[in-house]
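PROTEIN DESIGN WORKSHEET
SECTION A - STRUCTURE
LENGTH: 412
TOKENS:
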């Protein structure tokens, strides 16, 4: 099943975990101490770019009856919506720019360009997801209530349509995010009670009405005789944004190596233990600077989960330091090309459309679901032939190919 003893799974002592936590905290503090004009200019320029793309797209779409104008306007609008959601909305609402004390660029005032409200998203994402990351039964982002993504989720007949549900979620991702906090999906946590639920539904419907009116009524009407083509352009831009957002989020949480957890290890969890869980439960993907920017720098999902309130433009430099920590402590740093990470996510979703009895690996030893039980009967520590420090990475290699490594007598 999911990991219930994170430290034991990671092949670390309690002192090791605290030492790692101190290193990561020092990385975070270094960035906080250096924030200044460079970062301020970055977010301000990003806002100017995003608004320019959207305004340009809206103007071009006034002439959407012409195919080149339709294609150009759709592309500009889609790019603007992606930047607003990924690099601005998501990150601003995490409080990454609150240090500027700018009332416009602040987590308490930003409302983003999707049907869901910022208030709802901050509750489901900032609190539940980042506090209970990948803890089955506590983190609604584990499958979003409709997709089975780990063997720890019991199989039910609707899971046989896993690929269908995920395809629908990808195309309508903003709607999935919007309704998540309403607790109406069958697999989500429903604990708020009907009165609170009714209040949230009302808030969601009011926000969704404004978004639908903007994209599918008012801006199309401004195009006069071209209202139909402008409407289809707006719909296409929203779908492009939804598909990209879904890909980025899934690549950060569901490739092989993004581990799942149970509640057992959460009690009295220290900051250092929380850091370790974030490192093991997240995954990155590689790419160009443009790809990182268009993903909201969530291509550095590991760094984002370690330091969710650090400005996203700093993740690339932080990543080098985090990788160094992982190398020295022999911990996995899960990353790969976008296509590989997304393929692994879809492959897992396809596999888990079947009951566990039809799957080869166990719930403790599958590419997408591992636990400390996979090492039962194996030595707790190892060393490579060159005698360097060994930990989880070495243990995983030993587990798949015992002849590569030799045992040593030091115990944890």
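SECTION B - SEQUENCE
RESIDUE ASSIGNMENT:
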């Amino acid at each position: 099943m999911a990991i219930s003893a994170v430290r034991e799974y990671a092949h670390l002592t309690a002192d090791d975990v605290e030492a790692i936590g101190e290193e990561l905290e020092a990385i975070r503090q270094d960035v906080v101490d250096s924030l200044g004009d460079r970062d301020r200019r970055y977010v301000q320029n990003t806002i100017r770019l995003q608004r320019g793309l959207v305004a340009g797209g809206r103007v071009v779409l006034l002439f959407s009856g012409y195919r080149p104008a339709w294609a150009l306007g759709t592309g500009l609008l889609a790019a603007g919506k992606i930047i607003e959601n990924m690099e601005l909305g998501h990150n601003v609402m995490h409080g990454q720019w609150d240090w500027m004390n700018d009332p416009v660029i602040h987590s308490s005032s930003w409302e983003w360009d999707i049907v869901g409200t910022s208030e709802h998203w901050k509750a489901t994402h900032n609190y539940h997801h980042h506090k209970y990351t990948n803890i089955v039964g506590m983190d609604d982002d584990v499958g979003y209530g409709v997709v089975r993504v780990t063997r720890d989720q019991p199989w039910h007949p609707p899971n046989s349509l896993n690929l269908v549900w995920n395809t629908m979620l990808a195309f309508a991702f903003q709607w999935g995010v919007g309704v998540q906090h309403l607790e109406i999906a069958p697999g989500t946590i429903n604990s708020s009670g009907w009165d609170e639920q009714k209040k949230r539904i009302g808030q969601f419907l009011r926000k969704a009405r404004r978004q639908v009116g903007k994209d599918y009524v008012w801006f199309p009407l401004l195009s006069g005789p071209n209202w139909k083509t402008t409407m289809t352009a707006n719909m296409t831009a929203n779908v492009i944004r939804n598909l990209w957002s879904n890909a980025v989020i899934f690549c950060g949480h569901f490739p092989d190596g993004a581990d799942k957890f149970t509640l057992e290890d959460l009690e009295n969890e220290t900051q250092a233990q929380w850091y370790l869980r974030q490192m093991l439960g997240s995954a990155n993907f590689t790419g160009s600077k443009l790809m990182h920017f268009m993903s909201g720098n969530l291509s550095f999902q590991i760094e984002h989960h370690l330091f969710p309130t650090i400005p996203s433009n700093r993740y690339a430099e932080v990543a080098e330091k985090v990788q160094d920590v992982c190398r020295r402590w022999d911990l996995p740093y899960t990353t790969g090309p976008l296509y590989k990470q997304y393929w692994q996510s879809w492959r897992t979703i396809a596999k888990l459309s079947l009951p566990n009895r039809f799957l080869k690996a166990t719930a403790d030893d599958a590419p997408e679901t591992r636990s400390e039980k996979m090492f039962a009967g194996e030595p707790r520590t190892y060393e490579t032939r060159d005698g360097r420090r060994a930990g989880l990475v070495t243990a995983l290699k030993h587990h798949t190919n015992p002849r590569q490594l030799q045992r040593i007598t030091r115990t944890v």
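SECTION C - NOTES
The chain has 15 helices and four strands.
The two ends are 23 Å apart (CA to CA).
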